[in-house]
Amino acid sequence: MNALSSVQPAPPVSDASAVATAVAAVVAAGRSAALRGWVPATSGNFSVRIDAETVALTRSGVDKGRLTPDDVLIQPVDAPPVARASAETPLHLGLYRARPEIGAIFHTHSPAASVIGAGLLAEGAVRISGWELQKALASVRTHEATVEVPIFANDQDTAALAERIAERQAQPVAGVVAAPGYLLAGHGLYAWGATAAEAERHLEALEVLFAQILALKQFAA
Ligand SMILES: CSC[C@@H](O)[C@@H](O)C(=O)COP(=O)(O)O
Ligand SMILES: [Zn+2]
């Protein structure tokens, strides 16, 4: 081996305007979720893909409703979490690695998502059917479709959790539409889309659907 063969290739350099666009989308998504009360007490994390190799991702422990561009880090998709990155970075990277079509991932801690995940953990999923708003999810055309949102037990080992999620994502369920999101029991919701705008729409639709499902349970009780 000569000296040159041990030189590592330089990391990819993302286009500056693509970085700025992704960072601005992360900041906007955090602020928007905070206004809805979905990211209390510094909870939640947000990422937007910059290109095939990198994403813009929130820094750990900051108020997601008061994000500035300095709170958004550049994270390679195929590398360990960078310093100060979200504690839940492995959950973002697992999805970006497995699914190149995903362009943004938003995570919230709304009461409705946390409660439904805890209440239905034993069933392994929440099935959504009969709601007009479910048509806001990509590939859902009718209120008669059944949309499945998987539920996973919460785990502070987010790398192990990411592996369990990837295994289940690789096993589609016949007869239902897989939601662009999943629930962590007693924790919250992860939702994604091909773009930041689509992830925002999916997040809002799922959050409101969960609130409606909870309200209907109370109404019927
Ligand atoms: C403040 S409780 C919520 C955290 O434990 C975590 O679940 C979360 O969503 C935010 O973690 P972060 O490391 O700021 O991305
Ligand atoms: Zn969380």
Automatic annotation (TrEMBL):
Binds 1 zinc ion per subunit. Zn(2+) binds at H107, H109. One of its GO terms (molecular function) is methylthioribulose 1-phosphate dehydratase activity. It is an enzyme of class 4 (lyase). Pfam families: Aldolase_II. Gene3D superfamilies: Class II aldolase/adducin N-terminal domain (3.40.225.10). SMART domains: Aldolase_II. One of its GO terms (cellular component) is cytosol. Keywords: Amino-acid biosynthesis, Lyase, Metal-binding, Methionine biosynthesis, Zinc. The keyword Hydrolase does not apply. Pathway: Amino-acid biosynthesis; L-methionine biosynthesis via salvage pathway; L-methionine from S-methyl-5-thio-alpha-D-ribose 1-phosphate: step 2/6. One of its GO terms (biological process) is L-methionine salvage from methylthioadenosine. Its EC number is 4.2.1.109. Residues 24-214 form the Class II aldolase/adducin N-terminal domain. The keyword Flavoprotein does not apply. It catalyses: L-ribulose 5-phosphate = D-xylulose 5-phosphate; 5-(methylsulfanyl)-D-ribulose 1-phosphate = 5-methylsulfanyl-2,3-dioxopentyl phosphate + H2O. Belongs to the aldolase class II family. MtnB subfamily. Belongs to the aldolase class II family. AraD/FucA subfamily. Catalyzes the dehydration of methylthioribulose-1-phosphate (MTRu-1-P) into 2,3-diketo-5-methylthiopentyl-1-phosphate (DK-MTP-1-P). This is Methylthioribulose-1-phosphate dehydratase. It comes from Siculibacillus lacustris. The gene is mtnB.
